[in-house]
Amino acid sequence: MTDETATTTGAAGTEVAGTEAPRDDAASTGVQDAVTAAETDGAGPGDGAVDGDDVLVTVEDLKVHFPIKRGIVLERTAGHVYAVDGIDLTIRRGETYGLVGESGCGKTTLGRGLLRLVEPTGGRVVFDDTDVSTLKGETLRKSRRRMQMIFQDPLSSLDPRQSVESILVEGMRAHGLDSGKESTRARLVELLDSVGLPESALHKYPHEFSGGQRQRIGIARALAVEPDLIVADEPVSALDVSVQAQVLNLLEQLQQRLGLTYLVIAHDLAVVRHISDRIGVMYLGSLVEEASSDEMYAEPMHPYTKALLSAVPVPDPTVEDEREQILLTGDLPSPANPPTGCRFHTRCPWKQDTLCDTDRPELRDVGGGHRVACHYAEDILAGRITRHEVEPELVHPDA
Amino acid sequence: MALLDVRDLSVVFKRKGTRPFTAVDGVSFSVEPGQTVGLVGESGSGKSVTSLAIMGLLRKRGAEIGGSVTFEDTELLTLSDKQLRDRRGRDLGMVFQDPLSSLNPVITIGLQITEVLERHRGMSRKEARVEAAELLDRVGLPDPQRRIDEYPHQLSGGMRQRVLIAIALACRPKLLIADEPTTALDVTIQAQILSLLSELVSETDTALIMITHDLGIVAGLCDDVNVMYGGRIVERAQRHDLFDRSRHPYTHGLLQSIPRLDAPRGEPLTPIRGSVSDNIEWEQGCAFAPRCPNATDVCWSEPPELKADDGRMLRCHNPVAIGDAVTEGAL
Ligand SMILES: Nc1ncnc2c1ncn2[C@@H]1O[C@H](COP(=O)(O)OP(=O)(O)OP(=O)(O)O)[C@@H](O)[C@H]1O
Ligand SMILES: Nc1ncnc2c1ncn2[C@@H]1O[C@H](COP(=O)(O)OP(=O)(O)O)[C@@H](O)[C@H]1O
Ligand code: SF4
Ligand code: SF4
Ligand SMILES: [Mg+2]
Ligand SMILES: [Mg+2]
Does domain B4-227 have CATH number 1.10.287.90? Predict the structure, then answer.
């Protein structure tokens, strides 16, 4: 569904009612604004909790907007999907950053924008002190070696006509890592071994493997070029429950052994909590909360996070019988037509009459690096504001 | 007297040029009115085939069906197609994983419901329309009066699933079969649908067969749980017994391999080794033997029978010792 060439070539940003910040109108000119905004704005990255930490990736006000084309003969842009709409985050070297949120909230697009597999509409990505948003041609290609991606569906991401050997060698060759026949061979065996596959796998084809084994091949392919960062997009969601744990354990072992940094995207909150050091929760193109994995679970502050965590069934009847759920009404609004103010206000059980539907809350540090984008986070935490009923609004999927 | 009694159900797919494939093998369970029974297992374990066989939806599909399916004293497997359709329309409802492909894309959702009401409850067109709007309201579709004339593609996945539930409820079924009804949905929408289902079950005394691969869903919803592996039931227990101390090595292994949201972080997961592709044939021994930590010689040569043991049904030569069973916090 996603398209490599889907760049948003600076198509004029459409008016979106209620957002107080002006949208960046062109693909590249947004960068400068973003930098200044980040510098002047106290909640920007590079300060607060991450100060002094070894940061590998900094994402500043990243935006990826997809134009909506209408008309067959005369294509015109009928609007935009605000898939990623102003995200600030940092990923420290050696950590696992987990990204969660409902389908369509922009997780994959953020991951792809970060790797520049899709051209961002605005903002920038700094990888190990290099601004990758401005890289072009050969330098961009070279920088890609250090950032690799693992996909959800291992079968569709592996070329069925290529043997495992040729899948693995391809990336190595592209980055000049296939130094000699002997050493390449040794490296291939080492790679397979590190993901728990036998040497005999080299001459087999993807369809000859089970889902879990294919995901191991996908991981080996990513490792082949010795990356620093791996973006894993739903790495276990296509796998059987009994096999998920094998792949999760493998990812953890590899991280310890190779010092890898992960951005793990998943919709399964239990998986994300298990594997992540820190977690970011996305809703309609923005981060609504970010905290350490333990803190996010122990004290979620954003109403959306609270609802999300309360909705996860736990395989324990005793816990289930007592689980207090915050049931949200209605559906996720369309990212082409996001609500004004706080994007969650159409479903928020804590919504207030002031601010919520007019002002877009900033992601701000509420202490200890726990960041929340809610006007009333403290009041909710202290119990000064309580939950109420919400009338569901129907959302048209193609609106 | 059980509402539904499935005895020794087997489904063998026979296609020219391929070996016959036994998808479901000797499955027996029963469902009482108002009871929720779970069928869990990983993909390919035979859950959907079981439910399709019960509903008579595998006829003319090259499937050989054995055993018996009794619904209120009527043997469903030997009914004529017409008799079965009638019975299904009146008493059995089904909700599938993918609502879009089970709804007719060119007919409004209202008509898809009124059709059922006119045919099976003998309502006039006008009555049916009023009832349809009520059903849509009942399943939580906002603004049903207006939505009733919309087409499936105009609704989100969660709303489509509600429409499907409304259709299934239209005939006031005594038994509802839900096959992975929330697998395609987001967790917040899943929570809405699950609470809707459990509300319906408790208010109308409808029996529910819940098919899922998600042990969390089963833990909260089902009275009795059947765990399937390779087309057979390997463990059946009341939900507290199953989760508090699973005795079958497969169930036990599953519970140890899934990360739990409420588990302390940093505890490593204990995966089950291998994958279903390592299974051996049940005729040979225990299909799970190649992956089982408890396997002994007998497991490779003698198929285990499903037997009553420790207040449950177990298909295993060497069940997990009671002391070793998963207890709370052990994950
Ligand atoms: N190439 C594209 N062209 C137009 N719209 C796109 C494109 N890629 C993604 N989108 C839209 O951007 C939004 C975010 O999509 P994205 O794939 O990032 O979501 P996601 O959070 O990864 O969802 P999921 O959990 O379903 O994978 C969606 O509305 C999607 O339809
Ligand atoms: N129409 C069919 N023809 C042949 N094999 C089938 C057919 N339908 C299902 N199967 C096989 O039967 C087994 C059980 O399938 P199914 O009941 O769909 O599993 P699940 O537990 O995931 O619902 C699988 O191995 C599947 O490939
Ligand atoms: S800002 Fe208002 S609408 Fe948004 S999450 Fe907070 S309370 Fe809810
Ligand atoms: S019968 Fe043997 S192989 Fe099968 S589950 Fe029991 S112990 Fe394991
Ligand atoms: Mg995605
Ligand atoms: Mg199925």
Answer: no
